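Example 5.3 — ATP-dependent DNA helicase
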Amino acid sequence: MNEQDKVSVKKLHSEIKEITEVIARTDEDCTFDEYLAYLNIDEQSYLMALRSKLKRPTVFLKRNLNERRINAYNREMLQLWEAHMDMQLVVSPYGCVKYIVSYVSKSQKDVDLMEEDEENDEESTVAPQFRILDLNETPSDFQLEMPHTEKIVSQTEASRFPLPNLLPEIKTNPSEPFYHFISGGAGVGKSLLINSIKQVLERFWIHQPNNKPDDIHILPIAPTETKYIVSHNIAVPDGISNGSPCILKKVIYGQLCEKGNREQIPIRAYVQFEKETTGEKTRQKLKNIIQADGIADKTWTPIQRICRSFSLNENTHIQVTRNQLPLLPSNAQTIHCSQSCTYKNILVFITKNLSRKLLYTAFSRVESLQGLHISGIYKKPIRATIENDPSLREMIRMRSEAQLQFSLTFPEEVKNDKNIIALFHNVRSLNLHFPNVCSDRTLMACDIIMLAETWSQPADRYEIDNFTIVYRTDCASTKRKAFGTLIYVKSALLPHINILFQNESISGTNHSTVVALTVCSKTVIMVYKSPKCQWLVLQQQLQQAINTSLQNNVHEIAIMGDFNIKYQVSDPNFKNLNDFMIQNNCFMILDPTKVSTDHNSLIDLCFSTNPLTNAFIFESVTSDHKPIWIELINP
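Solution (predicted structure tokens):
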């Protein structure tokens, strides 16, 4: 065969491979003749194409096209093994000798590892009834190793350890709890071992006196009181997300809603999270199920089975659906899996190859420095520089070239010794949101804080550090309602504050409040009008407050509050309000294109005799009304 023919044959091999992949994705079967017809080649060309890529003796197994994914396919052995298997066919004398020598004499490396494991076992403090059996490490009849791996398992008498040696301990010590964990990779025989233990235990218990043969006393289940993690985002707002640690408390068995399937399987698991608030909404939502299961502990959260779909492999569109409980036994986690979680105490195992990024991720999982524990040698990471850290370069660029310009202006940004900040907010129940008010930096930066609809009772205490209450009204009845006003003034500014006017009009459920106070030769008037209160009532109160200010020779007046009158030219009430303000030389200083509520309306208004007075609206996380504030320049 010349060079040109070799190139043609190799090209044909590539085409055959691509076409075969396309056929395999359909999972359809065909005969060898149909396969050759589809490729449009004869058998001789097909064999030549296969040989073009061979560099050593190779064995081809005869099988159907839809059986190509099974390793080392052999029908008789597959039926005997009842699982996927890894086998190696030896076709050379050297390979055969190497396999035999490796089988009868382990490498020194494996011997050292075994001795090290024995030393660790002697120093272990694990109780004898709490053992861990890894089928990947324990010599057993359920394991076949590939000849090219470093460790070859010799099948000795110790391979029969699991069944005959464990059962006497269970039978002779029935009063003591017995735990036995079986781990190992896929195909090593875990299912076969578990089923064998289950059958022997069932046979033992049903032969005991006063036991019914049909009753099942032993079932292989997940051990309770063991640490687990949630493996799926179930209810993220409720704190049940991927990686959330918990303790398994109970497993509920039942049947899936499938025709002909009456097998008793785990349908629900109850877990206890580290924080009682985690899963609180889920427990409330499933309270009927919790009650039906007879769960008395209010901190146990039910975890239901979920269905997850994934592709069989990258080369096919076949979707596989898995119905399972999203829980994994875990006394430890990888750093990647712990992302998005926060723990009270963590132990980080540091290895040589732990990068700076992984260290940051691991250390930032803990709530405080007192809860951080390190195992290994910790070396302080090299300080990031612009040359070796692209993240740092991007942060510097964003700070210097791409700063965000906020559309909102905050009082703390403009506050200085030469101005006074006055704020009004319909807080929608100070009784409910008082902690939020005290921790709000924007509110605490103001000099005067005026709150409406506090829903307060006379016995309620709402003291704030560095502030003094100068005006307050509460609900008249014992039932909390949308009533009440409260004015805070910074204690340092108190000597310069004087309340000129206060008037409150109440008629059934309708009420209005107007309070005028002077500060540094300026008058600030707070206004609140309930939705059904008549404009004429508020008009009389406002006129009296304005006249009182003018009589005290204070001509710069700012009026702000919740008028419950929409800023619309077509609204008759707004027309009356606007005409009244113009008559008193007051002008609207808020941007009329903005809204002051979450309902896209502008009913919290601000007027001033000084059109140069700055007035702004910003956001609130506790109320559907947005706070409004003004800046008064102190001469």
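Remark. The first helix runs from residue 3 to 25.
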